[in-house]
Amino acid sequence: MEKNRQYHLQEILFGTDDNAESKRISVLVKKGLAKKIAPRLYTTNMEDTPEGIIKRNWFKILAAQYKGAILSHRSAIECRPTPAGHIYLTYTHSRKVLLPGLIIHLQKGHGPIEGDNSFYDALFLSQEARALLENLEQARKQGEGSKTLTRNQIEEKLEGIIRVRGNDGLNALRERAREIASQLEMKKEFDQLNKLIGALLTSQPSKSLSSPIARARALGEPFDPPRIKLFEKLYGDLVDRIFPALVDQNKTIKAYQNFAFFEGYFSNYIEGTVLAIEDAKQVIATETPLPAQNEDSHDVLGTYKIVSNRQEMSHIPKTATELIGILFNRHGILLSARPAKKPGQFKDVNNRAGNTEFVDWQLVTGTLKKGFEFYSLLQHPFAKAAYMMFMISEVHPFIDGNGRIARVMMNAELTSKGLAKVIVPTVYREDYMGALYKLSKQEDTDSYIRMLERVYSFSSTVHGEDQNEMEAYLRACNAFYEPRNGKLIF
Question: Which residues pair with 89 in a beta bridge?
Fold first, then answer.
């Protein structure tokens, strides 16, 4: 009875030449406590499909039935079966084995060498240098039926190594591949690997590279691939939507500047610049910082100088290079009083907020230029504004001032087409920050777009020649409330 209980703890049972063990499995099958799902393969799970059980236990099956085999080629890099169930092993002979949910490709080849890793029980895993050489072997099939990854995938793997470990890390990998190539009889594959690495490190021509990510690295403008995929998703969800074109009613210089005052005030408040509204008015009116809050005053004044200038706010980038120039110029004005924050220069160290790691400082320029491609394809001003604001926020190109610059860039898109700008009032801060976070972490574009549409609609109602009346209207909308104390109403 105790032995039966032990079997129930094992989802997978293996056929064996041991008579006693074989008899015990037969008893379990007769009692309906186990069933056969493949040759020499049984399960005590009487509910799930054989495909599901085998896929879930693939590594146990391989270790039990192909002792000493090496998880190799694409499987050494992916470390799991492909979605269609293909798995590739280097073994003592070649064969294809079909199981429910799993297609095992055995290829005769060199056994484990020094540096290959123990993977599970009696299984091995090709070390990184060996796996890359294996993936440069010629393969007759394409797609998941191919034992090798595509050339683009290999190049992107190498580019990722540079991003994480730097040039020295990639050079160390190359030297290890050189050491083992003769032992594995893979000199031809090493020559290919050497060319790819040389191109990535710019010691050889980049024409041998085909992956856009790898080519960007070789040309000196590497980018952040996951961020570009996220930008592409946002582009896809913006491009086919219909957005309102809310005309800016602050047509006079006075009205535009009134709006700009509150635009800059709230934009700084979101970032923690807590300046009383009357103090902020004094700073703007006199263009003189408050002695007790010198840097905060300068931040408010710098933001206002940009957003109150309709000509400046009508300037939007036509090229990726122009985008970089605009960002440098506006950031230089915004943080002119904070030399330690390197105004007008991209960050030279990595930055983070909470558990969010922003784009690596070495990838900022390339990521912005690559992201600009999707921006340039958008047509509606609101779509371009929404995309631009998130792109700058997500890249976080500067040491400080990123949120404010992102909102400036957003509103420039709207002003350039005569549309209402966006104010993000204090009461709406959590909605705003929460939607940014959900897009960044969960790829939730819908929450982000709906959040911006609502605050855009609200902002279009804020207009007038009298600053005091504009302030009274904002107070009636609960704009100055902390989020816990009220909701935006209009």
Answer: 71, 106
